[in-house]
Amino acid sequence: MRILSLNNGDLKKELLNVGVDPEAIPIFLKKSKVIALKLESLNQAICNILKQVALVCDSDCAIHKKIISGRKKKADAILITTLRGLEKICEKLNYQPEFLKSVKENLEKFLKSYKEKDSFVLKFKDRSYNLKNRILIMGILNLTPDSFYDGGKFKDIKEAVDHAIKMMEEGADIIDIGGESTRPGSKPVPLKEELKRVLPVLKELKKKIKVPISIDTYKSEVARICLSEGCEIVNDISGLKFDKKMAEVIAFYNAYCVIMHIKGKPKTMQKRVHYKDVIKEIYDYLKERVDYAINKGIKRERIIIDPGIGFGKLLEHNLEIIRRLEEFKSLNLPILVGHSRKSFIGKILNYDEPEKRLFGSIGCAVLLALKGANILRVHDVKETKEAIKVYEAIMNNAHNF
Q1: Which of 147, 252, 316, 342 is deepest in the core (most CB within 10 A)?
Q2: Statement: 33-115 belongs to CATH 3.40.50
Q3: Structural domain boundaries of the chain?
């Protein structure tokens, strides 16, 4: 007797080896994936009915012990089921009281998005990227004197452009240029200075590379000018919060935007860091910011989310975000993560110098891919690309059966 891999491709192969009717295989696959869904602030009646419906559908629902006895009127619940079980639960809820309608609709919405997860296609001027079974690499081009790792590395326009071309040749799918350091403790840079750093490089890059270019800024005027010069993504660490005109600018140019979570501002974000529930707070923040962006005219299919590793987080918060990254899939949007050479890796490995954090960054990149990241923002394109290529070869091979 042995345990089997529950990867869809591997399990399908074993089912065929056993001699299962091919038409029955989708049913077995749906039963093989366990899903735990947290539903918040449900009243007593909904909790108890959902519990009973789940049990009838070969699933279960964990609820507060005082809900069962009637001593608590509202509580959260955790529905533990499979894809097939969830389908059955949704069917059964059709015959339940009207007050369960919103729960049913939310479960059906989740079910639809779960089946379609990672079926994102990013469409740029010169190329499109299908994110199904593929992780994109975003190469970092810092045009700052004070970035934590490569600040001041590019002394002139030619050096910066040459490095961007090198990253593209090494496999970068996107180049992300930034003219202001947002490392912990950094101070804001005046608008004119930021433009002075990024514009000449951007103009040269547009002549020489075909991969899309992202502008790393939270200033709407920088975004506006860079978008007019050919940038196609705005990577805003503030989640469109620091500059109220940012969403309007992105919507006008129909650009892609990265909405990131941050707690505080770069200068002070690592002081007195506290979360009651780090995953819930980041999730709620990103959901609110996505809704805000859509209300301001940004198309949903143009939004990418980023949980903001290191931006107002302690070591334990960063580790939990990476470990539970899949939970952000419920937002049904591509996930970008910037982990490269950051201090949390240094703390784990006991390296103060970012130069020593390459192997830790590569290990983290592979784990992030496994946990559902769609885009990795990195300094070391060649090394990361090769690690991800091996990861994709192993994982995608299972889908060929």
Answers
A1: 342
A2: no
A3: 1-31, 33-115, 121-400
Domain 121-400: give its CATH superfamily: Dihydropteroate synthase-like (3.20.20.20)
Calpha distance 381→392 (Å, rounded): 16
Q: Cα-flanking dihedrals φ and ψ of residue 197, to 5°? A: -80, -40
* pLDDT string in tens for the chain (401-residue length): 888 888 888 999 999 999 999 999 999 999 998 999 999 999 999 999 999 999 999 999 999 999 988 888 999 999 999 999 999 999 999 999 999 999 999 999 999 988 888 889 999 999 999 999 899 999 999 998 766 656 566 668 999 999 999 999 999 999 999 999 888 878 888 999 999 999 999 999 999 999 999 999 999 999 999 999 999 999 999 999 999 999 999 999 999 999 999 998 888 888 889 999 999 999 999 999 999 999 999 999 999 999 999 999 999 999 999 999 999 999 999 999 999 999 999 999 999 999 999 999 999 999 999 999 999 999 999 999 999 999 999 988 755 54
Pairing verdict, β 136-142 and 174-178: parallel
What is the DSSP code (8-state) at residue 180? Answer: S
The pTM score is: 0.93
Catalogue the active-site residues. 342, 377
